[in-house]
Structure formats: structure tokens, C-alpha cells
Amino acid sequence: LLPIALHQFIYRVQSPTALPTFLLIGPSGAGKTAFLTLTERNSAAQTHTSTAPLTIQALLPEGFVPSSSHYRSAGDPAYERARRFLLLDTPGHGKLRHFATARLVNPSNVRGIIFFIDAASVAEDTGLNEAAEYLHDVLLALQKRYTGAKTSKGPKEIPVLIAANKLDLFTALPPHLVKISLEKAVSEVRKSRAKGLKDSGVAMGAEEDMVDEERNWLGEGGEGSFEFRQMEEVGTSVVVKGGNVLGGDGTDVKNWWDWISEQL
Length: 264
Ligand code: GDP
Hints:
By secondary structure, the chain is α/β, with parallel strands linked by helices. The chain has eight helices and seven strands. Residues 7-16 and 49-53 have low confidence and may be disordered.
């Protein structure tokens, strides 16, 4: 009997499902798969593709320290354990996005969301609007998760990293402009969604209409513009950090590893 119990114990400790998970989200073509592949290659000896096709088990690269382990030394089993995490790639294609949002509604072990965007594509309206619509929906899902929580303390925070990728391209917007452009575009999405609701709400009573509007309005009330820092009110930090997975001069993903380290 003992060996079985031991086996189960070890399985539970090592079970990949217990590892902190980061979701890779964003429009297709942003570089999610490229980042996943890079991560897998970086820690080649320790990673493996798990049974779920889009999940890989990864290890924080050398030189990055999980925030929970600042006082531990390398070689300490707890330190080594804290460096392990899962990266879950989600399909960016519009019809498959429910995949990502379903995971948001019921997140087990989701430690953070990495929203990838192509910083060159957001320099154009089409790319910017597509990214903004997707981002709006992700942030609204997080807001609803917070406001719908049963406990007064609110659910555990799920921070968001907006990874402005492809900075090696000379047409790419620098991260601070990516941030401003996205905030503006998300404001527009918010406005047009509210209008859509109002237009479709003919059958609803005025009161229901109001409640529904409030629930679906991202960020603070009022007609002003949306800013990412409004998400802090609903327990979600949103930061924009630049990098590039590929490019002539090699990769630069240090900012993103730093952010992941802070969450581990
Ligand atoms: P996904 O749809 O988000 O998974 O995007 P992919 O990872 O498939 O990348 C889409 C395209 O962008 C591919 O052709 C990649 O080679 C390219 N790509 C990804 N990251 C970068 C980058 O940092 N710089 C450049 N120049 N191209 C990139």
C-alpha cells in the first residue's frame, strides 16, 4: 500500500496542473507561437510538451529570480520548484476565442495573462482595432470575475502583461505609444459596445437596461477615456512592455521574463 500512497503523493506534488500558469492571448500573427517555441528551446533539458497540445512546461531562465524566492539560494529544492511554470497558448482566431475567455471565467492556477500584440500592426487602424476589441473583451472578463466574486475580499489578482512584440521592425510603435494607442482604441470599443447594447435593449425595461449597461462598461463610469490604470480598481494591473522574439539582432525578451519572475 505504501508505494502507491507515495506514488500518489509524488504525483500530486509534481502534477503539472498544480504549476502556475500563464495564458498567452492575442490576435493571430502577434508572435505567441514564436514565444512559446523560444521558451521551450531556452530550457530545453527541463521542458516538455505536455499532453494538452498547446501547453508547455517551462523553466525560468538563469539570471531571473522568482519573486517568492528572493531569500532562497540556487539548489534549494523550493527555489528550483518556484522557477517552474506552464505556458498555455490560446488560438487567436476570432471563432476560437471562447477558448481563452472560458479559461478566464474559471481560471485554475492562472497566475497571469500575457497579451501579445504586433507593435508594427497597431500602427495601422485595422491591426489596432482588432487588438483593442480582443483586449477589451479580456479585460471585461477579468472585471466581471472581480465584481461577480462572492467574497468581499475579491478573487486572487490576475495581472496582465501587454507584450508589445516585433520591436525589431522599424515600423513598430515604441511601447509607450502602443499603450496610448491601445487605451484610445479600447475607449472607442467601449463606446460602440455600449451603443450596441442600448440599440438592442428595446425590449428591456429602463432599469434592467441600466444594470446591464453598468455591468458591461469597462473601467470607471463616466464618458471619459479609458486608461489601463482604471483596472486596478477591479484588482487587475496592466503593464505594457516591449520586446522581440525574433529579429536580425537576435531576441530581446528580458522585460517579459522580468514580469514573469515578479509573478512567480
Ligand atoms: P501567433 O499567431 O500569435 O502564434 O504568431 P506567430 O508566433 O505564428 O508569429 C507570426 C509571424 O510573426 C511569424 O511569421 C513569426 O516569424 C513572426 N514574428 C514573431 N515574432 C517576431 C518578432 O519579434 N519580430 C519579427 N520581425 N517577426 C516576428
